[in-house]
Amino acid sequence: MKKWLYQSMIELGNGKTSSAALKRFTQSTISQKAVPGFIKAYNIELGEVERPSGQYTSLHDFFTRRLKTPARPVANAELVSPVDGRVEIHGAIQNDSRFAVKGISYSLAELLGSEQSAQRYANGQYAILYLSPADYHRIHSPVDGQVLNQYMLGEKSYPVNRLGLTYGKSPISGNRRLITELETVNGRLLVVKVGAMYVNSIELTEFGTEWQKGHEVAYFSFGSTVALFFEGRDIQFDEKIKDGNHIKVGEPLAHMV
């Protein structure tokens, strides 16, 4: 009953009209007045932000803020975090190409839109990283790699917070998402950028075929999740990677065994 109620309420306001209206507001100069309240509500640390808060022209401009150059050093690890966010869950992909988040079982084939692609990762591992509204929302490459495939799937999006993950309509595999497959020296890696409700956009900033570890590649507009899928099990997650822990861009995520 809770799940049905939640989904029904979300559907009432999750249309193109409401999303477009919110997008217009957040990108307007009028929304600049909301920036101080947003900073206070989410207790955002301004010392590492690239510009003084008064120089942001809109709420969207602040939300997609860049940081000062030394704010996110890149660790000497094979795989580093691509985002600032909470480790929602990490572990092994099941042999039937399924993975679990908040008690919900997801099909990797549905997420990728391809059974063949899913089979490649059937014996691999995964990590789900959730970005709250307070987090830095630019995405960086977790590894050096060559872009093999990049495509968008999905239209509408449910919230990707804890309520959304628990009661939403399979938000990880059903939301609008941009999928990038990389070839690395340690095998293939999927970087799945999952949009969130309302302002459901994922903007690329890297259009080349080579990704460099730690370099910015994209950003989110309001709320989001990044899901990583590793081809094999020759990786070991860093000892600090625990479900529920917060991680920042460039910090160690996993090492080769």
TrEMBL record:
Needed cofactors: pyruvate
UniProt-listed InterPro entries: PS_Dcarbxylase, PSD-B
GO terms of molecular function: phosphatidylserine decarboxylase activity
Keyword Lyase appears in the UniProt entry: yes
Lineage: superkingdom: Bacteria
UniProtKB keywords: Decarboxylase, Lipid biosynthesis, Lipid metabolism, Lyase, Phospholipid biosynthesis, Phospholipid metabolism, Pyruvate, Zymogen
Keyword Lyase: yes
Pfam families per the UniProt record, alphabetical: PS_Dcarbxylase (PF02666)
Signal peptide: none
Pathway membership, UniProt: Phospholipid metabolism; phosphatidylethanolamine biosynthesis; Lipid metabolism
A GO biological process held by the record: phosphatidylethanolamine biosynthetic process
E.C. number: 4.1.1.65
UniProt cross-references to NCBIfam families, sorted A to Z: PRK03140.1 (NF002853), PS_decarb (TIGR00163)
Protein name (record): phosphatidylserine decarboxylase
Species the sequence originates in: Planococcus maritimus
